[in-house]
Amino acid sequence: MTLTSFGPANLIKRSAETHPLTWRLRDDGEPVWLDEYQAKDGYAAARKAFADMATDDIVQTVKDAGLKGRGGAGFPTGVKWGLMPKDESMNIRYLLCNADEMEPNTWKDRMLMEQLPHLLIEGMLISARALKTYRGYIFLRGEYTTAAVHLRRAVEEAKAAGLLGKNILGSGFDFELFVHTGAGRYICGEETALINSLEGRRANPRSKPPFPAAVGVWGKPTCVNNVETLCNVPAIIGNGVDWYKSIAREGSEDMGTKLMGFSGKVKNPGLWELPFGVTARELFEDYAGGMRDGFKLKCWQPGGAGTGFLLPEHLDAQMYAGGIAKVGTRMGTGLAMAVDDSVNMVSLLRNMEQFFSRESCGFCTPCRDGLPWSVKLLMAIEHGEGQPGDIETLLGLVGFLGPGKTFCAHAPGAVEPLGSAIKYFRPEFEAGIAQAKPGIPPLARPIVIGA
């Protein structure tokens, strides 16, 4: 995926009014450092928040704007902020940025951190003011080495300008910000596993309640937000609730814009900031350019490897949480993957389940034992050695590992694509047990995403 690809010039013209996340991007893809960022109204929203708004007003504004988490779960941000304790005596509290972006086929936050590091810092600064947090951490995926360098430089620039540290903007408010690189575990995307890892513990999810807002990092009140979520905060504070709600397309229940994309064998794989409510067909055809010559769209995932597969006839669904739910899955991160007609679904699912099995923390039995079991069955089917009843066993695992059956959401996300693949492409799974049927792609060498 080309991180600086924002669509054909005749389709998209970025401006502060329509593209609050990306309008400051440079055409050459280089980072926007402090002087340029401030020349483009950077930190103006932070100055407004510090000078003109009470902390509760900031929280209420974000809540009224309808901002939801952009990491995949879609929980209302203002509601989450409202869970932080009001007790002023609890003066040690933390703000964590979840930048552990390890969902396969989903790399959107990387662009923001590498090219607009000050946008994330401003978003965290305003959020810290609202939540009365005195210290923040950006928990960064360890492989994002360029992002780490750029974020650390931006933090130092902000410190030197009096935008981080002690007595920020003469307000008496102190906020320190640190970049922490993780050791590379997918499960750290779950907020309590992230907290455990930050504390130096094994990255296992914690039992909830208590929720991090009450007992988080080092036992103190903690708020965890995604990179893209925090990057929306400056525009909401700067431009207001009505403006933010007006950006989304008619019919969308989600407000504002979203980084969306398409990967796979499409003509123009890329990443675009688009209003909630655009159709998947518009994203696929107008921005991604449709399939490359010689390939046909077989199915697609709307937002990462943990979302269910959809068919070409589902492309008219609107890209927002409720719109994708209407066709049977979740929007997830909003970065879609196109699967072409040369791919056999058994091989694709075997590869996906291997990833999810390897990344399980192993805490609960359904996930620890169920995911490897699915991999073994899929490998047998992939090599034509499946036994009668294997497909039914796989469907049973989809049920046993579904929502509410495991300690966290890792296993439900892992089996969602498996269940949908069997639903839509069952003959390909049956071909690994019985004799292959005409017209079904052969079970060729194993597929490795990204190879």
TrEMBL record:
<comment type="similarity">
    <text>Belongs to the complex I 51 kDa subunit family.</text>
</comment>
<dbReference type="GO" id="GO:0051539">
    <property type="term" value="F:4 iron, 4 sulfur cluster binding"/>
</dbReference>
<dbReference type="Pfam" id="PF10589">
    <property type="entry name" value="NADH_4Fe-4S"/>
</dbReference>
<dbReference type="InterPro" id="IPR011538">
    <property type="entry name" value="Nuo51_FMN-bd"/>
</dbReference>
<keyword id="KW-1278">Translocase</keyword>
<keyword id="KW-0288">FMN</keyword>
<keyword id="KW-0479">Metal-binding</keyword>
<dbReference type="InterPro" id="IPR011537">
    <property type="entry name" value="NADH-UbQ_OxRdtase_suF"/>
</dbReference>
<dbReference type="InterPro" id="IPR019575">
    <property type="entry name" value="Nuop51_4Fe4S-bd"/>
</dbReference>
<dbReference type="InterPro" id="IPR001949">
    <property type="entry name" value="NADH-UbQ_OxRdtase_51kDa_CS"/>
</dbReference>
<keyword id="KW-0285">Flavoprotein</keyword>
<keyword id="KW-0411">Iron-sulfur</keyword>
<dbReference type="InterPro" id="IPR037225">
    <property type="entry name" value="Nuo51_FMN-bd_sf"/>
</dbReference>
<comment type="subunit">
    <text>Composed of 13 different subunits. Subunits NuoCD, E, F, and G constitute the peripheral sector of the complex.</text>
</comment>
<keyword id="KW-0408">Iron</keyword>
<dbReference type="GO" id="GO:0008137">
    <property type="term" value="F:NADH dehydrogenase (ubiquinone) activity"/>
</dbReference>
<dbReference type="InterPro" id="IPR037207">
    <property type="entry name" value="Nuop51_4Fe4S-bd_sf"/>
</dbReference>
<keyword id="KW-0520">NAD</keyword>
<dbReference type="Pfam" id="PF01512">
    <property type="entry name" value="Complex1_51K"/>
</dbReference>
<protein>
    <recommendedName>
        <fullName>NADH-quinone oxidoreductase subunit F</fullName>
        <ecNumber>7.1.1.-</ecNumber>
    </recommendedName>
</protein>
<keyword id="KW-0874">Quinone</keyword>
<feature type="domain" description="NADH-ubiquinone oxidoreductase 51kDa subunit iron-sulphur binding">
    <location>
        <begin position="346"/>
        <end position="391"/>
    </location>
</feature>
<dbReference type="GO" id="GO:0051287">
    <property type="term" value="F:NAD binding"/>
</dbReference>
<dbReference type="GO" id="GO:0048038">
    <property type="term" value="F:quinone binding"/>
</dbReference>
<dbReference type="GO" id="GO:0010181">
    <property type="term" value="F:FMN binding"/>
</dbReference>
<comment type="function">
    <text>NDH-1 shuttles electrons from NADH, via FMN and iron-sulfur (Fe-S) centers, to quinones in the respiratory chain.</text>
</comment>
<keyword id="KW-0004">4Fe-4S</keyword>
<dbReference type="GO" id="GO:0046872">
    <property type="term" value="F:metal ion binding"/>
</dbReference>
